[in-house]
Amino acid sequence: VELTTDILVIGAGGAGLTASLSALQEGNKVVLLEKMSFAGGASSMAGAGTTATGSKWQIESGYEDSPEMLKADMLANGHNYNDEATLDIFVNTVGAAFDWLVDPEGANVEYDNSEPGRTYSGVGRGAGVVKTLLQRVEDAGGDVYLNTAGTELIIENGKVVGAKAESKDKIYTINAKAVILATGGFGANDELVPAEYQEFVYAGAAGATGDAIEMTKAVDADLINMEFVNVQPNSIVMPSGLGQYCNPGVGGAYATSGAFLVNENGVRFANEQGKAYDLIQAMKQNKTNYLILDQASFDAFNKGMIGSAIYTEENVKEWLENNGSSNPVMVKGETLEDLAKTLNLPEGSLTAAAEKYNADVAAGTDEFGRKLTVEISNDGPYYAVQMWLRYYATLGGLHINDQMQVLNTKQEAVDGLFAAGEVVGGLEGDIYYGGSLFGWAMTSGRNAGVSASSMIK
Ligand code: ADP
């Protein structure tokens, strides 16, 4: 099948949808390809907290923020591994993109502005935002092809003039004046994820296979920050392999009563309530990580968790009944010694850890700098929840210029080729900054749509 369009967008996540919508609004014909049977990718799994620095809403609310402040915070958060040029695009254009996102004449996406701040939340989380965007793209006349994967760029005299694509029973040649790559990250591709992360649980989108990384070899694309993958501490993994981030549960447990992490030696090793980055580095050193809880903190943990998609009362019951498993989600013991035995931790280690912990509570703090106020109970039962590091977003990818054009390894813009969203590398440095993943999808998508439109005129 041969198609001809103005702008071809590959990947229908947050970035691909905003790119398509803005290109349509600039008066172009748009073909949008999505390899999965549904649009949304990682964006539809996201919480949709979205950076709004410099937006009208933020300015009207009086909240103090600026591109310079956002940049400084993201550089510090990302340990200066950020690509500054990409970061500059983000901090300087995110406000305008956010205005467009909530404008009825723009994307018309519903956001909650009841609490002023640096970020606002999309109503219905990522899934809600994606649904609105897809509807808007269709209403504006975009041609959306689901179950259709972009496979190869068509290049003539060094210029990208379209792409080949495949569905189950068709092969497409799509001619276009510009191609926007919005294929998301590469977390689901073991050949691209650095080995050190592969022992962690992958909890991202299935379609994040880094296809654009492969496709752009043909234009000698420059790749940056490919060694960085975003990791979260405090996750459980179910026997099915699905992972769930446990921060609501963990926070409640630490606030309620004694709860602490131990390693495979039954020894505490970090400030459990410290910065995520520091906790990740500490958890990485261990073979296993267990959260040890008394009854009150276990109840608080469940209160924070039950109701989240894969954590129900039935799950908890089932997991506890599986107490003898060699790789348990959670176990229960009448005493700390029972628990240590089931988990194969050294005899006496948990009792010693609890005694030390309670002595630290009396002192108000411990050697890791955690403030301690509530003892772990001297009476059982006790629980252990196995805690994992999990990864989802990838932070490396294509190197772009301020027009969202893909750069080759000579740092020259590739004619006709643009990129947006998670496929772009370098924004975050080595760990992501809250709200900026979704904010970047929206901002970079819109920028790429506008930029590609102006260049093909
Ligand atoms: P972002 O919004 O940052 O681009 P997402 O993960 O939300 O990231 O969106 C990327 C989308 O691209 C996903 O829906 C994914 O299934 C899709 N995708 C990945 N590879 C291809 C491909 N080769 N062809 C078409 N769609 C693709």
From TrEMBL:
| Alphabetical keyword list | FAD, Flavoprotein, Oxidoreductase, Signal
Q: What is its EC number?
A: 1.3.99.33
Q: Per its Swiss-Prot or TrEMBL entry, what cofactor is needed?
A: FAD; FMN
Q: Which Gene Ontology terms cover its molecular function?
A: FMN binding; steroid dehydrogenase activity, acting on the CH-CH group of donors
UniProt name for this protein: Urocanate reductase
Question: What are the GO cellular component annotations?
Answer: membrane
Superkingdom classification of source? Bacteria
Give the shown range, full length included.
Answer: 139 to 595 of 595
Q: How would you classify this enzyme at the top EC level?
A: oxidoreductase
Q: Which family does it belong to?
A: Belongs to the FAD-dependent oxidoreductase 2 family. FRD/SDH subfamily.
Q: What is the reaction catalyzed?
A: dihydrourocanate + A = urocanate + AH2
Q: Which organism is it from?
A: Dielma fastidiosa
